[in-house]
């Protein structure tokens, strides 16, 4: 992370209402280059709604999303992908009966060159398998031995790994993950957390939605706390405790009551000190 960083992705004053229910009440978010931003909040705080606005799954009633400072209209998941934003949804969008390579390239299949590709639209399975292997190796996913294996035969953690690999392979700007470890055991969670760290190491910033405080505190650079449809604070997990984070999340403690060093609104604590 560098000190003068501009957000890669930001949201400003997002509002989303469903009839009389307000899911987002003027939500803001900033994601800086090279960071893992955790998003935490109680049930119904608007985390998923916020992420859906960023992944093109829903359109906010008002407010703005920007990529590198430029306003974008994410009117569909495809529009978000085109903007470089890849999302791993909690309900994994993998096709169980298809193999790993095909899942990785779903909707973005590689076609063969020449007439076979342009006329008969033949798929280049060999190249997709080789590229799939490369993407898996890139992220150190060594437990998957054969990209021809069907996804339904993989373990939960391996399936999650395929979904993360796909997002990391195609996300040019941002990878968003909604509760990636919620359904996983200890060992599989470990593997997915390592994977998230490797995505960051590749230079891609990550938004991680999670209820699991130990996971959040292990990997996050900053912690966005969502409460009653808006961001109530952004915390510095190097200074805050998990108890502080939970207290802010539930409203037991006001962010104003925390020391300034516990807050992390800007890119890094170091950057804030440099600025001010
Ligand atoms: N399609 C919808 N129709 C009606 N209300 C909705 C809809 N989607 C979300 N809401 C409401 O908006 C609020 C925020 O929901 P959201 O799913 O964003 O919360 P969340 O923070 O992701 O919660 P959780 O931790 O339980 O996943 C909730 O009160 C929810 O009931
Ligand atoms: Mg949710």
UniProtKB/TrEMBL annotation:
PROSITE patterns: ABC_TRANSPORTER_1, ABC_TRANSPORTER_2. It comes from the Bacteria. Residues 9-253 form the ABC transporter domain. Gene3D superfamilies: P-loop containing nucleotide triphosphate hydrolases. Keywords: ATP-binding, Nucleotide-binding. Signal peptide: none annotated. One of its GO terms (molecular function) is ATP binding. It holds the Pfam family ABC_tran. This is ATP-binding cassette domain-containing protein. It comes from Nocardiopsis suaedae. The lineage of its organism: Bacteria, Bacillati, Actinomycetota, Actinomycetes, Streptosporangiales.
């Amino acid at each position: 992370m560098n000190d003068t960083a501009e957000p890669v992705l930001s949201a400003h004053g997002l509002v989303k209402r469903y009839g009389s229910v307000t899911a987002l009440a003027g939500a803001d978010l900033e994601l800086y280059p090279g960071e893992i931003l955790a998003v935490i909040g109680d049930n119904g705080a608007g985390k998923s709604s916020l992420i859906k606005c960023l992944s093109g799954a829903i359109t906010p009633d008002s407010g703005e999303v920007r990529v590198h400072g430029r306003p974008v209209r994410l009117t569909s998941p495809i529009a978000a992908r085109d903007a470089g934003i890849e999302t791993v949804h909690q309900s994994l969008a993998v096709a169980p009966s298809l193999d790993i390579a095909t899942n990785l390239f779903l909707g973005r299949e590689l076609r063969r060159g020449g007439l076979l590709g342009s006329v008969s639209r033949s798929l280049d399975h060999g190249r997709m398998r080789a590229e799939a292997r490369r993407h898996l190796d890139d992220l150190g996913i060594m437990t998957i031995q054969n990209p021809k294996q069907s996804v339904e035969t993989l373990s939960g953690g391996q399936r999650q790994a395929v979904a993360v690999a796909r997002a990391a392979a195609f996300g040019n700007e941002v990878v968003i993950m909604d509760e990636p470890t919620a359904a996983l055991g200890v060992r599989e969670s470990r593997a997915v957390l390592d994977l998230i760290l490797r995505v960051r190491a590749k230079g891609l910033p990550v938004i991680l939605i999670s209820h699991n405080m130990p996971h959040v505190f292990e990997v996050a650079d900053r912690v966005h706390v969502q409460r009653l449809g808006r961001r109530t604070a952004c915390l510095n997990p190097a200074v805050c405790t998990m108890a502080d984070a939970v207290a802010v999340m539930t409203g037991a403690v006001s962010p104003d009551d925390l020391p300034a060093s516990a807050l992390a609104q800007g890119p890094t604590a170091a950057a804030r000190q440099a600025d001010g």
